[in-house]
Amino acid sequence: MNLINLASDLSLSSGPTHPAGTQSLGRGIKLMRVIASRPQFGWRLSDLAAVCGQDRATVHRMLACLVEERLVEQRASDRHYLPGPLMYELGFALSERTQFQRRVESVVQTFARRMAGIALFMLRSGQEYVCTARSGALPLTGLMVYPGTRKPLFTSVGGVAILQTLPSDEVRRILLDNVAQEIARRGKGRLHALQAMRERSELHGFGVNLGDVVPGIHAFAVPVLDAQGQALGAICLMGTPELYGEERLQSIHQALLDTAEVLHQDARKFNI
Question: Are 130 and 174 found together in one domain?
Fold first, then answer.
């Protein structure tokens, strides 16, 4: 499935459709997801309106309600909109997932130390991923993924590993959405690089990025399965070409698989 070809099929957009009477709720949820994608920098009203495809007045009214409910907050210094405390507080209702996240952080830290690189856990969130854990101290200046980062699945080696587990019709639907997001935010400039990462990963049977997207960063990933055997997320390893050359692919793959199995057993333990 070629990303360049998909870019010409965006008239067949895979964005969610909502039954009559729920469109406003759908727009509000989309707005919160977009705001959560830049938790540190935040969003200007005009940028939110453009990304969400809504007029400024409508978005402003929704934001006023979300701010009042503490789902969103507005930073006084620059008037940017950020995730609010209620987003965080609601998560405590899922105690088993909170316990699983603590375990993820421990496993990721141990894995990064053992492999002398940077390890990440990427949780699948619909058609996107959320980084929930990062460990390691390599100076990879081009790696702009930290806990809380939310991006389309196809932009990361971890997302590619997750996509490899899904049926082709679901992959196409996700990629149509992801390509549309990419073009809306950054244009078509990276599509060839992202396609190269997909093709390389297909060749090796797991997520492999040998500097395809960001020169100087090699990255690898395998899916982590939940208690039902579905892809819950991905465990990722990143480093320099000197540290993780192509000749190490087999040993890196096995190390990732071993760590993914540990997390799979934890997911079963916590019924995730």
Answer: yes
Reference 235, options 175, 161, 166; nearest CA is 161
Phi and psi at residue 235, to the nearest 5°: -100, 130
Residues β-bridged to residue 133: 121
Query: What span, in angstroms and rounded, lies between the C-alpha atoms of 219 and 47?
Result: 31
CA quadruple 229, 230, 233, 238: dihedral sign: positive
Among 88, 105, 124, give the residue marking a domain's end: 88
Which residue, 267, 263, 252, 258, is CA-closest to 157? 252
Residue 6: CB partners within 8 Å, gap ≥ 6?
Answer: 172, 175, 176, 179
pLDDT of amino acid 142:
74
Over the range 1-27, which residues count as b (16 or more CB within 10 Å of their CB) and which as e? eebeebbeeeeeebeeeeeeeeeeeeb
Q: Mark the ranges of the chain whose per-residue pLDDT is less than 70.
A: 11-21
The predicted pLDDT at position 14 comes to: 44
Tens of pLDDT along 39-94? 889 999 999 998 888 999 999 999 999 999 999 999 999 999 999 999 999 989 99
Here the tokens at position 78 are 């620059």
Domain boundary among 88, 113, 133: 88
Q: In terms of domains, do 192 and 108 share one?
A: yes
Q: Tell me the pTM.
A: 0.86
- pLDDT on residue 21: 64
